[in-house]
């Protein structure tokens, strides 16, 4: 076995987290493990600098934010808290297909006394609900086919008033090893261990992400690699 494997091509495989009949107890354990990995990897902190750059364009009334495929809601909740510390209230809407994930997100928001709506929603099938100052999506695109990605990015573009930010894994052998190591250090969930490896193999490179941005008609989108293991796509709507 190679110490650092080569991953020249994308490999998609069904992840356990996506199974409709997944045991809810195991599902919640995996969601909490992923939230822990997000905190360790600074998932919200990778997105926040892009939001800070456009804060001057926001009124002091609540900033509206949509998180697509929110999972347990840890990323938008963290971003909302960062906004509050910067003097901006916010109204968060999080969408996810999984009722178990939505329940976890609602519980987390309630514990923190955060104004947020988490809704069970099929983002691939249905139009996104309204327009928002900020639209974010973290660790979702690698679950999708290329056609699904382009269609979703177009819907997210239409829902964006000011800034669209997408963050996902960067496919590489080094990142595969880092995700394997972090998963085992930070979570006891066998689902996290299994799905983390599959996620990196199904992820996209920066070059591939740039191609999606072009096909989705996101002019002047900027995509940068971010440590650890990710890239971040940013697109701003011109006033």
TrEMBL record:
Cited InterPro entries: Methyltransf_25, SAM-dependent_MTases_sf
Domain Methyltransferase positions: 66-161
CDD domains: AdoMet_MTases (cd02440)
The keyword NADP belongs to this UniProt entry's keyword annotation: no
Example GO BP: methylation
Entry keyword S-adenosyl-L-methionine: yes
UniProt entry keywords in alphabetical sequence: Methyltransferase, S-adenosyl-L-methionine, Transferase
Gene Ontology MF terms: methyltransferase activity
SUPFAM superfamilies, sorted: S-adenosyl-L-methionine-dependent methyltransferases
Alphabetized PANTHER family for the sequence: METHYLTRANSFERASE, UBIQUINONE BIOSYNTHESIS O-METHYLTRANSFERASE, MITOCHONDRIAL
Name used for this protein in its record: Methyltransferase domain-containing protein
Source lineage: Bacteria, Pseudomonadati, Planctomycetota, Planctomycetia, Gemmatales
């Amino acid at each position: 076995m190679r110490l650092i494997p080569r991953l020249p091509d994308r490999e998609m495989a069904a992840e356990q987290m996506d199974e409709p009949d997944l045991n809810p107890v195991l599902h919640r354990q995996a969601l909490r493990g992923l939230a822990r990995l997000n905190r360790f990897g600074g998932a919200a902190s990778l997105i926040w600098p892009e939001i800070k750059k456009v804060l001057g364009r926001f009124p002091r009334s609540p900033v509206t934010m949509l998180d697509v495929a929110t999972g347990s809601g840890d990323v938008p909740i963290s971003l909302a808290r960062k906004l509050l510390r910067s003097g901006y209230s916010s109204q968060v809407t999080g969408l996810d297909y999984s009722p178990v994930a939505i329940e976890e997100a609602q519980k987390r928001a309630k514990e923190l006394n955060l104004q947020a709506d988490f809704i069970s929603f099929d983002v691939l099938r249905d139009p996104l609900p309204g327009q928002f100052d900020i639209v974010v999506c973290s660790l979702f695109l690698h679950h999708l086919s290329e056609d699904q990605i382009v269609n979703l990015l177009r819907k997210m573009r239409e829902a964006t008033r000011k800034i669209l930010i997408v963050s996902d894994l960067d496919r590489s052998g080094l990142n595969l090893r880092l995700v394997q190591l972090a998963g085992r250090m930070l979570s006891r969930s066998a689902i996290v261990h299994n799905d983390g490896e599959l996620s990196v193999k199904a992820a996209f490179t920066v070059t591939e992400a740039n191609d999606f941005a072009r096909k989705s008609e996101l002019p002047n989108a900027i995509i940068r690699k971010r440590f650890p293991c990710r890239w971040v796509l940013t697109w701003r709507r011109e006033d």
